[in-house]
């Protein structure tokens, strides 16, 4: 299959074949894309014949970060060749990572210690030795407070996945959710007043929000589908999230999904994009600094070329 590294689309959806028993005869291609909120532009930044995931947009607007094969890589928004960021001993980074509001630090979730269970660390954005933040495992980073002083993360404690906060400088973790069922994907509003998250406490996954201290938990979406990973635009006007069909449990990879956009002013929801993706598409914040665009990853399964030809 010929791969074109840069392309331009306008208000389109990419259709792909779903996985089958013939998966061994296919190659997975990952595509880093950018789409504008007004749907006037959708373009490809980078394509590779392997899995990479979860873009973050640098605060200066010039670079994107993503994870691949346990490492964090960076690439210009205009495309090019990715470069691996030095994360020291942390070579099992997963797709829960993000950049501090001032752009100087990177939070990563990595399984290089504690029996390969995920822990949250902070690394200089230029690379260096990780500083461990969470002491208990597993822990998965998901959000920075706007003042950079607090991290929001998901932790499994005694078999329950809940949302916690912890000082970025290190310290004691604070549990914010106690409802039965999985709580995941916490991300702060730009004013720091709220943490948005997804929860299955109603029977299936929906978007919720709460005050930054865990109080006043309220439901935001009410559909039959399963909604994951809410992220609020820097200007506070929009919430993007990932939607699976109601028949899908968890947040698996290689599924037909929707990127949906909610106006926080009137709660109206529109479809931003239809794609083949899921796990790794928008697990972490990926808004452009000007709130006009989003970065995400889609996937495609293509037949392997016959080497005998």
Report on this model:
This protein has 309 residues and is mainly beta. It has a single domain, classed as Neuraminidase (6 Propeller). Helix content is 0%, strand content 46%. It has no helices and 24 strands. Strands 1-3-2-24 form a four-stranded antiparallel β-sheet, with no helix packed on it. The protein starts with 6 loop residues before the first strand and ends in a 6-residue tail after the last strand. Residues 1-22 have low confidence and may be disordered.
Read across the widest sheet, the strand sequence of neighbours is 1-3-2-24
Radius of gyration: 18 Å
Q: What is the typical, i.e. mean, pLDDT? A: 92
Q: Based on the structure given, which CATH architecture is correct?
A: 6 Propeller
DSSP summary, beta strand count: 24
In whole angstroms, the N-to-C terminal distance is 14 Å
**Total tally of structural domains:** 1
Tell me about the biggest sheet?
A: 4 strands, antiparallel
CATH superfamily: TolB, C-terminal domain
Helical residue percent band: under 10%
What is the 3D form?
A: globular
- SSE class: mainly beta
State the CATH topology.
Neuraminidase
Order of helices and strands: EEEEEEEEEEEEEEEEEEEEEEEE
Instruction: Give the low-confidence spans.
Output: 1-22
Q: Please count the helical segments.
A: 0
Residue fraction in strands: over 45%
CATH class identity: Mainly Beta
């Amino acid at each position: 299959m010929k791969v074109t590294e840069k392309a331009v689309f306008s208000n389109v959806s990419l259709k792909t074949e779903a996985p089958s028993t013939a998966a061994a005869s296919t190659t997975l291609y990952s595509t880093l894309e950018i789409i504008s909120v007004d749907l006037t532009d959708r373009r490809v930044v980078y394509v590779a014949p392997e899995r990479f995931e979860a873009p973050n947009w640098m605060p200066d607007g010039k670079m994107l970060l993503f994870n691949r094969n346990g490492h964090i890589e960076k690439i210009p928004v205009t495309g090019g060749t990715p470069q691996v960021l030095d994360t020291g001993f942390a070579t099992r980074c997963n797709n829960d990572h993000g950049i501090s509001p001032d752009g100087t630090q990177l939070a990563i979730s990595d399984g290089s210690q504690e029996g390969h269970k995920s822990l949250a660390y902070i690394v200089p954005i230029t690379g260096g030795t990780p500083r461990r933040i969470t002491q208990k495992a597993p822990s998965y980073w998901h959000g920075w407070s706007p003042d950079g002083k607090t991290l929001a993360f998901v932790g499994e404690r005694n078999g329950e996945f809940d949302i916690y906060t912890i000082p970025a400088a290190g310290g004691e973790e604070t549990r914010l959710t106690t409802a039965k069922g999985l709580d995941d994907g916490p991300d702060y509003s730009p004013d720091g007043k709220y943490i948005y998250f997804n929860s299955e406490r109603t029977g299936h996954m929906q978007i919720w929000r709460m005050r930054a201290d865990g109080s006043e938990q309220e439901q935001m979406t009410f559909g039959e589908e399963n909604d994951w990973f809410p992220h609020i635009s820097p200007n506070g006007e929009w919430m993007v999230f990932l939607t699976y069909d109601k028949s899908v449990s968890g947040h698996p990879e290689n599924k037909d999904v929707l990127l949906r956009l909610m106006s926080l002013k009137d709660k109206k929801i529109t479809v931003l994009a239809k794609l083949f993706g899921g796990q790794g598409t928008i697990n972490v914040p990926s808004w452009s600094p000007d709130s006009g665009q989003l970065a995400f990853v889609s996937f495609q399964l293509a037949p392997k070329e016959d080497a005998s030809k």
